[in-house]
Design a protein that fits this description.
Blueprint: H1 6-13, H2 20-32, E1 38-40, H3 41-49, H4 55-67, E2 71-76, E3 79-84, H5 86-99, E4 110-117, E5 120-127, E6 137-141, H6 148-154, H7 157-172, H8 180-198, H9 218-238
Antiparallel strand pairs: 1-3, 2-3, 4-5, 4-6
């Protein structure tokens, strides 16, 4: 039987040297914080091992995260439980809000803002509700013209390449995932890629996307895939001696509601 995760795993390792510590941060944000905040070394190793991260690599990454003040560990027999430190939790909140924000709706009011920077004026167009309040210049109104050339300008090559990688993963996820561990690993890889995009690039509303963009509405595409695989992934967290506590109610509010059709 073909391994359904092979395309995603290959894509993960094709991005250059894998930063296992960053993948672990993704695990905490997506699977641990809403379920008590702690995960055992055995369960973490099983999840990372499913995508090709060796035990020694995981231990090195855990050590680095501990030295950098992100996580702390508590020994339990032959295993350890890991959780985020208070300062790590503080750093999580803004990122979590951006990662799991709901897909955008139709936009009627836009804002053109100009901010003065050391390298010159920085111009941005965005929905009026999301425009920077502290900009040096702000003009609001309807969007009456936008050329394809300017749309292409809004999606530079690096951003386009990141969306192409995301589109690759979404296509790979468009298959049944009957195994809970597979679903958990797939969800981890999806959010890991999405997290790197949303924390590096501004959200580009569908109305501003170039016609040839890899994804017309990336956030909605991620939300739809997440809703499909999240429930089965949660069941993997429910089983075993080191099962995690039940999910907090806020989990169901991710992407505007996981129970939406």
């Amino acid at each position: 039987m073909t391994d359904p995760l092979v395309p995603l795993i290959q894509n993960l390792h094709a991005q250059g040297r894998l930063r296992a510590w960053s993948l672990i941060i993704t695990v905490f944000g997506d699977m641990v914080q809403h379920r008590g905040g702690a995960i055992s070394s055995g369960r973490l190793g099983q999840l990372l091992g499913r995508v090709g991260v060796e035990a020694g690599t995981m231990r090195t990454a855990i050590s680095r995260l501990g030295q950098d003040g992100w996580i702390t560990g508590e020994r339990r027999g032959r295993s350890s439980d890991y959780r985020l430190r208070p300062d790590g939790l503080e750093r999580f909140a803004p990122a979590t809000a951006r990662i799991y924000a709901p897909p955008p709706g139709p936009v009627s009011d836009w804002a053109l803002t100009v901010s003065l920077t050391g390298s010159g004026p920085e111009l941005r167009i965005a929905p009026a509700s999301e425009a920077e309040e502290s900009a040096d210049l702000r003009v609001e109104g309807r969007l009456t013209a936008l050329s394809e050339a300017y749309r292409a300008h809004l999606l530079p090559a690096a951003y386009r390449a990141a969306l192409a990688g995301l589109a690759h993963d979404l296509r790979a996820l468009d298959v049944p995932l009957p195994d809970p561990l597979d679903a958990a690993a797939a969800r981890m890889l999806l959010i890991h890629r999405w997290r790197r995009i949303v924390l590096r690039y501004p959200d580009l509303p569908p109305a501003l996307m170039p016609a040839d963009a890899p994804l017309a509405d990336p956030r909605r595409a991620v939300a739809d895939a997440y809703r499909r695989i999240a429930p089965l992934a949660e069941t993997w967290l429910d089983v075993g001696e080191d099962a995690l506590p039940p999910a907090a109610p806020a989990f169901l509010a991710r992407f505007g509601g996981l129970q939406q059709a």
